[in-house]
């Protein structure tokens, strides 16, 4: 789950890159676009994305049935600010985190921090309401690279750092925002020159790879403790 209760903090961009990272690794993935008034993720990844509707009980059950389906497909959710409260209210009421864990599915929430105090409060509320969910703070350097606000989003696991998404310059953003652009395809191009965009994609992919390793270590430590 890629989320924030605030607009324009990079949710869709991060969800896009995360989905392509999973696909580039040879795994299956589907991305759910929960932005009712701006289905940007779906327009960027029409082959791998689906529109989700929380406005009706049928749409809600269709989405949550997909999320806990034991089908070996990684699900990525681009949770828009308009759907933020409703989504997590339903997640809590339906007990979806516990049900997912019973099925061997880990729910990981990437929460993008920003300087607004309301974001910090929402982060605290999620920590209290979903203590079994893997909650991971994300520092998108595009949001505010100077202000020291990430201390308001401490990692629930002591010693673990936030995921860092490097700054994407306006010129590079104009490239990745073009219809049909693929981060993985760009990396695979046969060119004799490495560009700033190559560096950005690789750094971001490494952030996701290191996050996966940290999550695996969490599970290993938990298993050893239980024994």
What does the secondary structure layout of this molecule look like, with pairings?
Blueprint: E1 2-3, H1 11-24, E2 29-34, H2 40-44, E3 49-51, H3 57-67, E4 74-79, H4 84-93, H5 96-102, E5 108-112, H6 117-129, E6 134-140, E7 163-165, H7 170-176, H8 183-188, H9 196-226
Parallel strand pairs: 1-4, 1-5, 2-3, 2-4, 5-6, 6-7
Give a description of the structure.
This protein has helices at 11-24, 40-44, 57-67, 84-93, 96-102, 117-129, 170-176, 183-188, 196-226; strands spanning 2-3, 29-34, 49-51, 74-79, 108-112, 134-140, 163-165. The protein has a seven-stranded parallel beta sheet with strand order 3-2-4-1-5-6-7, with helices on both faces. By secondary structure, the chain is an alpha/beta fold. The chain has nine helices and seven strands. Helix content is 46%, strand content 14%. The mean pLDDT is 93.
């Amino acid at each position: 789950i890629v989320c924030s209760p605030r607009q324009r903090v990079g949710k869709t961009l991060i969800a896009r890159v995360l989905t392509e990272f999973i696909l580039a690794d040879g795994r299956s993935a589907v991305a759910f676009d929960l932005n009712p008034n701006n289905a940007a993720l779906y327009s960027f990844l029409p082959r791998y994305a689906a529109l989700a509707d929380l406005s009706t009980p049928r749409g809600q059950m269709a989405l949550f049935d997909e999320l806990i389906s034991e089908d070996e497909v990684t699900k990525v959710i681009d949770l828009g600010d308009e759907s933020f409260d409703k989504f997590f209210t339903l997640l809590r009421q339906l007990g979806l985190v516990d049900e997912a864990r019973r099925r061997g599915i880990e729910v990981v929430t990437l929460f993008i921090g920003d300087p607004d105090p309301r974001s910090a409060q929402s982060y605290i509320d999620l920590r209290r309401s979903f203590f079994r969910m893997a909650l991971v703070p994300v520092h998108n350097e595009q949001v505010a690279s100077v202000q020291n606000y990430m201390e308001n989003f401490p990692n629930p696991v002591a010693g673990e750092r936030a995921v860092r998404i490097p700054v994407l310059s306006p010129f590079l953003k104009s490239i990745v925002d073009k219809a049909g652009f693929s981060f993985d395809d760009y990396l695979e191009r046969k060119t004799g020159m490495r560009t700033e965009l190559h560096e950005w994609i690789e750094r971001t992919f490494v952030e996701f790879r290191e996050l996966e390793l940290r999550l695996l270590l969490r599970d290993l430590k938990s298993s050893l403790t239980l024994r």
